[in-house]
Amino acid sequence: MRRLSKKLQLDDEQQTKLAILQSAVKTTQVGMVELRHDSHRVLGELLAKNDFDRNKAVRIMHDLARQIDAHTGLLVDSFSEFFASLDCVQKERLRLIWQTNQSRHMRRWH
């Protein structure tokens, strides 16, 4: 986030909004990692049996969806606040950073 702050030349208020966004992302990631580990364990249990327990599988999917839903508002609101605080030049820089990162990510997968 420091690199992003430097590249966008954020002022103190914008840096605070970015820190709030970073906190929201980290909170969401922690919850998702914990749930993912539980899901992997339960999936292993499902696969260990001769019959697939559809109800248990559906519960796992619902738990994942609830976890995402629980954090969606916080993530969207904090990103919206951060993005709204940027001027036109900063928004364009952010778009270019995003596109560059997406291009790098796609090259790694192909």
Descriptive overview:
- The chain has four helices and no strands.
- 89% of the residues lie in helices and 0% in strands.
- The model has no long low-confidence stretch (mean pLDDT 88).
- The protein has helices at 2-8, 12-48, 54-85, 88-109.
- The protein is mostly helical and 110 residues long.
SSE string, helices as H and strands as E: HHHH
Instruction: Give the uncertain stretches in residue-range form.
Output: none
Distance between the termini: 27 Å
What is the share of helical residues?
Answer: over 70%
Gyration radius, to the nearest Å? 19 Å
Number of strands: 0
Q: Can you tell me the CATH architecture? A: Up-down Bundle
Apparent shape: elongated
Strand content: under 5%
CATH class: Mainly Alpha
Q: Please indicate the count of domains.
A: 1
Question: What is the CATH topology assignment?
Answer: Four Helix Bundle (Hemerythrin (Met), subunit A)
Number of helices: 4
Largest sheet, in brief, is: none
Task: Give a short overview.
With 110 residues, the chain is mainly α. Helices cover 89% and strands 0% of the residues. The protein has a single domain (10-109), classed as Four Helix Bundle (Hemerythrin (Met), subunit A).
Summarize the SSE layout with pairings:
Elements: H1 2-8, H2 12-48, H3 54-85, H4 88-109
Q: Which properties best describe this structure?
A:
110 residues, mainly alpha, Four Helix Bundle (Hemerythrin (Met), subunit A), elongated
